[in-house]
Amino acid sequence: MPILVASSAPIEQSPWEWPQRLIEMPLVTFTDPAGVATLLTDWERGWVVQPGAKGLDMPSYAFTKDESPGIDGHEVRQVRAEGKTITLPVAFWANDSRAAYMTRRRALIRSLNPKRGQGTLTLTEPDGGQRSIGVRYTDGMEGDESRDAAGARWCITALVFDVASPYWTGGEVTTEWKNGTGGDFFPFLPLVVGDSQVLGSVTVDNDGDDDAFPVWTIQGPATAITLTNTTTGQTLALTRTITGADTIVIDTRERRQTALLNGVTNLWPDLSDDSSLWPLETGINDLSLTVAGSTTDTSVRMTYQPRYLAA
């Protein structure tokens, strides 16, 4: 098998020094829609992502512009991050047999099938930090059997993935506020709690590079919910009487927006006309939460994933 290098530049390290070099690089994992994970940086088991990966950082942007006769330049009306592609030069092999290599190759091809749905690329840094992005395979495994691309028990290729949403996401951030029996509201936040409502101001720090859209889960009882981002001036208000056995989930994520009672009943008509399924801006967000008709069993939970422009 040839030396696994994707570039024609001189090699500064001999092949037996590569494992030590790989220890310092992030682990790259592809997980298919069924949850089958393939670690593409596993030298001991015959996988390595080679130099030359592309598309791991910022997307390109589309500008909507207005131009006026007789006025130089233009006015930018809207900025939108576009989808992109990610290219991963990958080598894989099997030291024991041609049969083992073909089993590995066929399993990867099956896992990459984009008709099965969206997969996930995850980069794990040496310190344990992770960022993930949704992808679909587009090309790279068509079968190049030329002398420098494949052999009886090895293959070098570049996997290309379509990325519909250009943001990498971090781990889920979940915070729950609950009315305590002593009048406290947990976790330890400066909220004033009355007998019939949860009312207070909280601060949320979104450390992502762009807006993050939360999923709200309200456990009853309650008669009305008002969730306000005072930083942006946007409010989400819903009026519906629910019991302690009921749960409302409001999903503000783009292209998924729903408001459901117990996972079945559509609560869209119960939202006020001026409601906005608002996001958390980058940085500090001051929020105001009100749940009328609440008891000590009532809770409000917010879950979101920070979105990043780079892996």
Write the topology of this structure.
Blueprint: H1 18-23, E1 27-31, E2 37-39, E3 47-49, E4 61-66, E5 75-81, E6 84-93, H2 98-112, E7 119-124, E8 130-139, E9 154-163, E10 168-169, E11 173-179, E12 185-186, E13 191-193, E14 197-206, E15 215-219, E16 222-229, E17 234-242, E18 247-251, E19 258-261, E20 265-266, E21 283-292, E22 299-304, E23 307-308
Antiparallel strand pairs: 1-2, 1-7, 3-6, 4-5, 6-9, 7-8, 8-9, 10-23, 11-12, 11-22, 13-14, 14-21, 15-18, 15-22, 16-17, 16-21, 18-19, 19-20
Question: Any idea what the radius of gyration is?
Answer: 25 Å
Average residue pLDDT: 87
Number of helices: 2
Q: What are the low-pLDDT stretches, counting only 5+ consecutive residues below 50?
A: 1-17, 181-196
Report the helical percentage.
under 10%
Distance between the termini: 31 Å
In terms of DSSP E residues, the strand content is 35-45%
Structural class: mainly beta
Per the principal axes of the C-alpha atoms, what is the gross shape? globular
Strand order in the largest sheet: 2-1-7-8-9-6-3
Order of helices and strands: HEEEEEEHEEEEEEEEEEEEEEEEE
Largest sheet: 7 strands, antiparallel
What does the model show?
By secondary structure, the protein is mainly beta. It contains 2 helices and 23 strands. β7 and β8 form a beta hairpin. The N terminus is likely disordered.
How would you summarize this macromolecular structure in one to three sentences?
With 311 residues, the protein is mainly β. It has helices spanning 18-23, 98-112, and strands spanning 27-31, 37-39, 47-49, 61-66, 75-81, 84-93, 119-124, 130-139, 154-163, 168-169, 173-179, 185-186, 191-193, 197-206, 215-219, 222-229, 234-242, 247-251, 258-261, 265-266, 283-292, 299-304, 307-308.
